[in-house]
Every structure is written in structure tokens, then in C-alpha cells.
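C-alpha cells help. Our protein:
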Amino acid sequence: FDNIADVLSVSPTLMERYVAVAGKVARQATGLVPARAFVTTWQVPKDGSVGNSGIPAFNERATTNLGGGDLPLASRGGAAVRYFARYDGLYDVVTWLNSNTNNENDRLTEDRYTLRVPMTAGTHRISVSFRRQTWPDESVQWLRNNTDYVPLPLDKPKLLPLDVWVDGQRAGTLQVPSWRMHPRYSQRNFPRDVLQLDVAGPYDVKGMAETPSQRAVFQCRPRSAAEEEPCARKIVSSLARRAWRRPVSTGDIAPLMRLYSAERAGGAFEQGIEAAVEAILVSPQFLFVVESPPPAGISGVAYGVSDLDLATRMALFLWSSIPDERLLSLAENGGLREPGMIEAEIARMLADPKAQALTENFAGQWLYLRNLEQQRPDITEFPDFDTRLRTAMAGETKMFFTYVMGANRPVTDFIRADYTFLNQRLAKHYGIAGVSGTAFRKVSLDPATARGGLLGQASILTVTSYGNHTSVVKRGKWILDNMLASPPPPPPADVPALKAEHDGRKLTARQQLELHRANPSCAACHTKMDPLGFALENFDAVGAWRTVDAGQAI
């Protein structure tokens, strides 16, 4: 969605990077990866769902399911993942733990614990988890954790068992101190949560498993030398058709087969396929959106694009990817133009997990969600703001957008809706009761609330504010530009700054802009922007409801 042709040039350096990446992808896809140790990393979400600053190891079953399912029943906190082991061998399961504080930027004392375990080639479920603990009678202090209390040792840390599980079997146990001294504040950090999980390997390599990408690439396996060239042609033709998003001719395939033959002459069958795959991925037919030229004699007027070009546009828009086999086949056979077929395909594509790209890329740009990560609200003005709240803000808007698109809701829901998507952290920020846990769910809104639609969502209200105060101008401009498609012109070069005080008196945002509009060069645009921004002044710079600004009623 940032496709501006004039600035999308390909420099020699960028082309070199494309070639390097294509080579890496081709090696991994064909399985010609050396049997050396690789590290696969799963980061804990910033919303603290693996553990949070409220001591998940002691007090709650705070689990991050990073694709691996649930943890064992007798556990409190941890992470679970699914891992594909390419080879039989030994693998290191590395758990990075963190003694966290309430300060989102204060993750200083992370450390790691490693256990080497044997695994066979194939997919495995790996998890790490703390056990449920019952503290013995001893000198303890009670530390508040949200709505519960847990006892912690006061004089020295206890050793907590951290279990490592592989396919439901305990592979080993690590001993982890229950707290450590903070290196900067000379105070104890009690919470222990999972920061990151790594799996590194293989070591002491034995056998090898076929990967999903190999199964997708190698549609045939030659059983003799005579079968190699026909099999290679079938593989290369299929991959080029998918990557280039159109049928391929004998002339298209000929140079790819020459590359295959040259590499095969000095190596294995798979090496020849790897060379052809790399060439497919650096071809302009893959890197650029190459559309059919207009019919002869047509110039300067709109014309219908071909079915293949339409299929590519649909896939790039909804998936930020290439057409799948169904969409490409429909376009090749002329079925895409049948009555109702485009609508049916759009509905199917929106229901596909790949449609999350529409939310990440289109909504991220349109709604400025990309800017949320860079927002730095003043911690003295907004002490309750933290990483979990920031992540929840983005999550609400992304789920809201995805739901509106996927359920084919009226476009007016973006302005006025009687529902939204909340978890406990964001519901607390909004003052909405009855929502618990880190998972988001659809929540009906009271008709009296001001939260319905995008303009009541904290993500939008935060990215249109400054770090320590709201911005009527930024919010008004955002509405004109993003909701009404009527962006104001750029401000004059000599525009004066707003005055926070006048005659020694602190001014509200409304009073500051009243003085600003007295300048004739500013009044024209602000007459349009300011009323829209003022309508949102009951929301502070992080989207919380307020009734007072600068000591005066709003």
C-alpha cells in the first residue's frame, strides 16, 4: 500500500540483496541446507501474556501458546511451541527469563537456562513451565499481584523448578532462583517470567526429515537418470507459473532448464533445481507486477485488465502475496468473470489467515497504527501506560478492522459501532467492567459510551496526540485526511507555535487555538480542523476519558 512507482527504484545494492535472499530461500526450499546448528527464536508478546509483572510463576496460569498448545496441568506460567527438527540429533532448549519490574523499559536482568535434549527428525511440541509452588513456613513478604497476594521469601531466593517438556514428556528440570537483586536499583525483583524461547541445533547429527517446503517443491522424484530431465521440467514449470502468476511457455522455461542442467552436471539433482528456483525468484516477472499491455489502439482511457492481472491485484491487495492455486486456475480458465465469482473469491480470501496482511499493511498505514510503537507518552503524566496497554490498543483496532472486513459489516461501523474488542488491560483503561484475562473478545458497548467506532479507540487517540498532551490539530487533520478524504494544505512556513500560557495563566487547548486562529493565515484551515479535534477533547493523550483540562472543565 506504499506503492509509489516513482520511488520504487531498484538500486544495485538492493538487487544484490534480492539475489542473496533468493539463494537462501532456494537452499532452504530444496533442503540443501548444511547440517549445522540453527537457532529458532520465539519472542514473548509485549502484552505480557507469557508472564507479566504480576508474578505468573507463582500466582497465575499465564501461558503463551506460541503454536505449541497448552502447558501441563500442574504448571504456572511458561511457553509452548511447535518445532520442526530437520535431523535426528541433539538440540538445545534455551529459556530466557526476566526479573521484570512495572517499568516497561526496565527489562535489565534477563538470563538464560539451557537444556540439551535428543529429538528425532520431524515436528515436536516443546514447552517450558514452572510448577505450582506451596511455600513453607518462613519469613516472607506479601507482594501484590493485581487482585491476589502471593508469599515470597524475604532473606534469600528459593530455587524454582523449571521443567522442559518434549512431546508431553519431561525432558529435564532446571533450577531457577525465585528472585534476583536488580543491578541498578539495589532492590529485589520478584517476578520471574519467560522472555524468549530458543531451540538450537542439531548437534551430533544422524538422519534427516523431508520438510514441508521440499514436499511442495518436489512434485516428483526421479528414480533413474532418464527421469531426471522430465521431472525437473515439471518442477520448474510449476514453480515459475506460481511465482510469475501466469502460464509459462517453452521459451520461458528454456533458460531455467539450462541453469538446471549446468548445476546438475557438477552436482546432485537437487542442486540443479536450486539454481532454477533462485533464477525464478530474481526474475523481473516475480519481483515486479508485470501486467498485460492495453489493447492496440487504446490510449489515455480506462480499459479492462485481464483475468490474470485481476487475480494478481486481488492477491496483492488482500494477502500481500501471490494468487493461490484456486485463484490462479480460475483466472487461467476464464472462470473469474463468471457472475458472482469475484465476490465469492473475495469472501474466501478474507476468510483465509493470509488476509491478516490486509490488516497489518493496509490498516497499519491508513489508521497510523504503524506509528503507535514510536509513541512515548510521558510517564509522569500517564503512569499507567505500559507496553501491555500499547499492545492492547493496537490489538483492539486490528481485530475491529478484521471483523468489519471479514463479516462484511457496514462501513458506518468505522464511525459508529455498538461493539469493540477488548481484553482486561484495555477494558480497565476504558473503565469497562466484566472483561478478564489477556485474550481479546467481542464486547457490546453501552449506547451511552463514547467508544463506538474508530474515533473512540485508544490507538487512534494516542497516535494523534503528543507525549504529554492531546492535539486538537492532529486529531482534526487525521479525520479530514483519513476519514473524509479531504486533507488540509500544509501549514505556512512561518506559522507561529501555540502558546501554553497567556498573561501568566495556563491555557486549555481550546484557549490556545482561539489565540492561534486570530492569525488570518491560520484561520482558514483551523476553522475546518479544530471543531473535529475538539469533539475528541474528552479523551486524553492515551485515550482515557477525562472531564478536565488544565484545571478547567472541558
Q: What stands out?
A: The first helix runs from residue 12 to 30. Residues 5-30+215-286 form one domain. Residues 48-68, 102-106, 134-150 have pLDDT under 50 and may be disordered.
